[in-house]
Write a structure and sequence with these properties.
Layout: E1 2-6, H1 35-44, E2 52-57, H2 61-67, E3 76-79, H3 84-97, E4 104-109, E5 112-114, H4 117-133, E6 138-143, E7 153-164, E8 167-176, H5 181-190, E9 193-196, E10 200-203, H6 204-214, H7 216-223, H8 231-239, H9 246-251, E11 257-262, E12 266-268, H10 272-281, E13 292-295, E14 301-304, E15 310-313, E16 318-322, E17 327-331, H11 338-347
Parallel strand pairs: 1-2, 1-4, 2-3, 6-11, 13-15, 14-16
Antiparallel strand pairs: 4-10, 5-12, 6-10, 7-8, 7-9, 8-11, 16-17
Helix pairs in contact: 3-6, 3-7, 6-7
Length: 354
């Protein structure tokens, strides 16, 4: 069984801390270790070092080797250019299939927070059992939603299929990517929808077949690649590909899906609201980064790097992030929209800030 840690994201929703050349997974947002280091250390509690691989952009190579000195260069599966998660996972599957095409592969995002490792590993064991029982299926882990999040995919659960390691395994009725707010509210009310935390498990040969069915261009182009190609040849191959996520490209189209609800204290550290939620649950780990005075204020999350005093009066449920060259202020419930600020910066040509 192989672990693939996806660490190639740009983290635009954690701007202004996360930048193009120093994305969020390389920051110690919660505690003393970076998000990538936390994810890797968690995986090492369950898996041997030689079975853990990192998928990222080639420009991140030096940062990866610095942060993860235990990792060998052969365990870095580096894309020449970003083409979203479908290309990243298919390229990795291509590399790993040469080691063992019938091995099981689990994907983990580098920016996930997990509170209870024992429960997490128990859920992975159940998922592995489900893949072994149904080798032509994709097994997903689902999380019970706590609010109508529009930035996550949702999994609609059908009837129970079986039990694995004492956990229920359900058939998936459908997989829906990032709904609008009103749709997310209906999903929350129905109680048979789970968040998709992007923890996927397949047999590698099954995964390769899914690309032939649903993303044949990815299958054809990336099958050509091995260690003998130059970076220029790899780049030319990637440039042909559509930029699409595994969620849109494969999972929304696939019928053979199973899901196991997980209860291990999961959070996607994908935007400042989730950072605030986790930080406030870990007061022993996270401390205020600057002196502050608050009057008639509550529910605010403040993170600064300058050490300046921050004072608030009559301010509620806001986020304030300050770095050396930028300040972000937004309501907690609009943290997903920070990526739109980055898009505007690009449009205005203000590349020094991204």
């Amino acid at each position: 069984m192989y672990v693939l840690i996806l660490a190639g994201g740009s983290g635009t929703r954690l701007w202004p801390l996360s930048r193009q050349n120093n994305p969020k997974q390389h920051h110690a947002v919660l505690g003393n270790y970076t998000l990538l280091q936390e994810t890797y250390q968690r995986a090492r509690k369950k898996f041997s070092a030689e079975d853990i691989f990192i998928s990222a952009n080639i420009h991140q190579k030096d940062m990866l080797l610095t942060q993860l000195p235990e990792i060998k260069e052969s365990q870095l599966i580096l894309e020449p250019t970003k083409k979203n998660t479908a290309a990243a996972i298919r390229y990795a599957a291509n590399v790993l299939s040469r080691r063992n095409s019938q091995a099981i592969l689990v994907t983990l995002n580098a920016d996930q927070y997990i509170k209870n490792n024992e429960q997490f590993f128990a859920t992975l064991d159940a998922a592995k059992c489900a893949v072994e029982t149904y080798p032509d299926h994709t097994v997903l882990i689902g999380i019970n939603p706590t609010y109508p999040e529009t930035g996550y995919g949702y999994i609609e659960v059908a009837g129970e299929k079986t039990k694995c390691k004492c956990l229920s395994v359900y058939a998936v009725k459908r997989f829906v990517e990032k709904p609008d707010l009103e749709t997310a509210k209906t999903y929350l009310a129905k109680r048979n929808f789970l968040w998709n935390p992007a923890i996927f498990m397949w047999r590698i040969d099954t995964l390769l077949d899914l690309f032939v069915q649903h993303l044949p261009q990815h299958a054809m182009q990336l099958q050509k690649l091995d260690d003998t190609q130059t970076e220029e040849e790899k780049t030319a191959c990637f440039n042909i590909l559509e930029s699409i996520s595994i969620d849109y490209g494969i999972l929304e189209k696939e019928k053979n899906l199973l899901v196991i609800p997980g209860s291990f204290g999961w959070a996607d550290i994908g935007h400042w609201r989730s950072v605030a939620d986790v930080a406030e649950s870990l007061p022993h780990v996270f401390t205020q980064t600057s002196p502050a005075i608050h009057k008639d204020s509550s529910g605010n999350f403040i993170h600064t790097t300058s050490g300046k005093l921050v004072a608030t009066i009559g301010v509620h449920d806001m986020i304030l992030i300050e770095t050396e060259d930028a300040i972000l202020v937004c309501p907690r419930n609009r943290a997903q929209e920070v990526k739109d600020v980055v898009a505007q910066l690009k449009k205005k040509g203000m590349y020094a800030y991204i």
